[in-house]
């Protein structure tokens, strides 16, 4: 690999890393989407956010998740959900037979989280906001995420360019 090819590899991988960091979401609160609550049976996926991020529903009620974004999302919950990519306009419906709190997330967008609160909270009516899911699992907040991702991309690009990572090299033998 020539020096110019190594530099190009570093620049390309660094750019990809920076762009990947720009697409992370911190929904369910955080700085990207304000947490919101609603009673009903519909959650919209848009702007890399679930809206509402907290949905109050009744046991047995059919709940519809609908992707409004032009890019893919999924709805993953523990023991339930739709783990396949949902394109724009795709819907996923589910219902919960028992009262409880059912957290969910989009595995494609770190920090894109929400919760369905079915019935009352363990002992009766909910009396206020339900806290967003653990903020400690969110990616670096605000504008820092793209810097971290860019640095990671540059490091990987440098390793590839320096030949430290498995890149096959073609040897030319001249007679």
Architecture overview:
This protein is an alpha/beta fold and 175 residues long. It is built from two helices and ten strands; from the N terminus they run αββββββββββα. It has a four-stranded mixed beta sheet, with no helix packed on it. A four-stranded mixed beta sheet has the order 3-2-5-8, with no helix packed on it. The protein is elongated, with a radius of gyration of 22 Å. Mean pLDDT is 74; it is low at 21-27 and 122-143.
Keywords:
single chain, 175 residues, alpha/beta, Immunoglobulin-like, 2 domains, four-stranded mixed beta sheet, 27% strand
What topology does this entry show?
Blueprint: H1 3-22, E1 37-39, E2 42-46, E3 49-51, E4 54-57, E5 63-67, E6 73-77, E7 80-86, E8 91-94, E9 100-105, E10 113-118, H2 144-161
Parallel strand pairs: 1-4, 2-5, 4-10
Antiparallel strand pairs: 2-3, 5-8, 6-7, 9-10
Order of helices and strands: HEEEEEEEEEEH
Shape by Cα distribution: elongated
Provide the gyration radius in Å: 22 Å
- Structural category is alpha/beta
The main sheet orders its strands as 1-4-10-9
CATH class of the largest domain: Mainly Beta
Short description:
By secondary structure, the protein is of the alpha/beta class.
């Amino acid at each position: 690999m020539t020096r110019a090819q190594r530099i190009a590899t570093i620049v390309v991988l660094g750019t990809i890393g920076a762009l990947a960091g720009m697409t992370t979401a911190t929904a369910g609160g955080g700085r990207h989407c304000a947490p919101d609550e609603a009673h009903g049976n519909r959650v919209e996926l848009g702007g890399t956010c679930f809206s509402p991020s907290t949905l109050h529903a009744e046991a047995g009620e059919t709940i519809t998740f609908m992707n409004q974004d032009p890019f893919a999302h999924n709805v993953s919950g523990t023991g339930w959900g739709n783990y396949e990519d949902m394109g724009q306009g795709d819907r996923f419906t589910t219902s919960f037979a028992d009262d409880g709190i059912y957290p969910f997330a989009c595995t494609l967008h770190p920090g894109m989280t929400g919760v369905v609160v079915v019935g009352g909270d363990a002992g009766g009516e909910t009396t206020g906001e339900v806290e967003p899911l653990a903020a400690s699992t969110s990616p670096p907040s605000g504008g820092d995420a793209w810097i971290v991702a860019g640095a990671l991309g540059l490091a990987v690009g440098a390793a590839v360019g320096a030949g430290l990572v498995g890149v096959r090299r073609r040897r030319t033998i001249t007679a």
